Amino acid sequence: MGDDSEWMKLPVDQKCEHKVWKARLTGYEEALKLFQRIKDEKSPEWGKFLGLIKKFVIESNAVAQLKGLEAALVFIENAHVASRTVGEVVSGVVSKVFNQPKARAKELGSDICLMYIEIEKAEAVQEELIKGLDNKNPKIVLACVETICRALCEFGSKTVPVKPVIKLLPKLFESREKAVRDEAKLLAVEVYRWIRDALRPSLQNINAVQLKELEEEWAKVPSGPRQTRFLRSQQDLRAKYEQQQQQQQAVSGDSPHKTEEPVQQVDPYELLDPVEILSKLPKDFYEKIEAKKWQERKEALEALEALAKNPKLEAGDYGDLVRALKKVIGKDSNVMLVALAAKCLAGLASGLRKKFGTYAGHGGANYFGEI
């Protein structure tokens, strides 16, 4: 009891750092009560704990950690300075909470991530969760995917960017862990709910069975997703939704219907990573495309055709390539090769979009009339 009497006299913040776990547990309990009492988000009291919140989260004792997580959640929700802690705390959640056997710990960890999103830190949270997907512990990977899915479901695609998520989906579908693959499917369905068919091109190369299963799930997705949780800066929007629900309830006399949002218009092209093709051309491409034998010219064009099929191409100097294709279209006597060159040129134009404008005068649309 002598030892206990010593640490019990310490201030709350010092208890939270004590070497004895019971002292830290008491510290977290007292901190939680203190945080619930503070009414001013800019109170100097918050500053005393600014450097401690990560320790609340990564607490090594399982019993104390639960109370530390509860206190951290209240801190993040109410303290004006909480946004400063997002990187280190979410990183701690990923590495030291998502691997815990207790469901309550993981639930609180997920709650903390979403609370940071609510206080306008969605990008930083998503960055840490994406890092967690590379962890060797499948429990951590699974919890990160679940949290990303939950964030997208509640806040919507305007708050939680889908492009970084879409890039990760193919890799998640290749996981050795069935639980991770299953959660990846749920995430893909959630992304589809918000952007619909814009998702399809990015997942065309996953396993055929998985793609078929996804197609079946996508067919069941109702139209009109709705944001259910709002950022601090979106409280006017929240009030508008609540008012609409009340009006609907008054008219129908029944439970309010969800107000549907229009599906976010997303260009599939913008979700793709550009592919660099110039360095992948055969070394003898320019020699072969001018060879006397039509078979060699055909071989060169077929090599380019395979590369030009990529839906999004990285910017580069395509001048020589466009000129070579222009020459085939304008002068080659073999109609089949002229058509093939035009197809390659069309692929470049489609893959480069606005960036192809530089070369349009080199023989873009003017030469399609040759076919």
Tell me, what's the shape? Answer: elongated
Give the helix tally.
19
Structural class given helices, strands, pairing?
A: mainly alpha
Amount of beta strand: under 5%
Q: How would you classify the quaternary structure?
A: single chain
**End-to-end span in angstroms?**
94 Å
Mean pLDDT: 90
Q: Sheet bearing the most strands, described?
A: none
Low-confidence stretches: 363-371
**Portion of residues in helices?**
55-70%
- Round the Cα radius of gyration to an integer and report it: 28 Å
Order of helices and strands: HHHHHHHHHHHHHHHHHHH
Q: What's the total count of β strands?
A: 0
Show the helix and strand layout:
Elements: H1 2-8, H2 12-15, H3 21-37, H4 44-47, H5 53-57, H6 62-78, H7 86-96, H8 103-118, H9 122-132, H10 138-155, H11 163-173, H12 178-195, H13 208-220, H14 235-252, H15 285-288, H16 294-308, H17 319-331, H18 335-352, H19 365-368
Gist of the model:
The chain contains 19 helices and no strands.
Q: Can you walk me through this structure?
A:
- This protein has helices at residues 2-8, 12-15, 21-37, 44-47, 53-57, 62-78, 86-96, 103-118, 122-132, 138-155, 163-173, 178-195, 208-220, 235-252, 285-288, 294-308, 319-331, 335-352, 365-368.
- With 371 residues, the chain is mostly helical.
- Helix 17 packs antiparallel against helix 18 (335-352).
- The longest helix has 18 residues, at 138-155.
- It is elongated and about 95 Å long.
- The model is unreliable at 363-371 (pLDDT under 50).
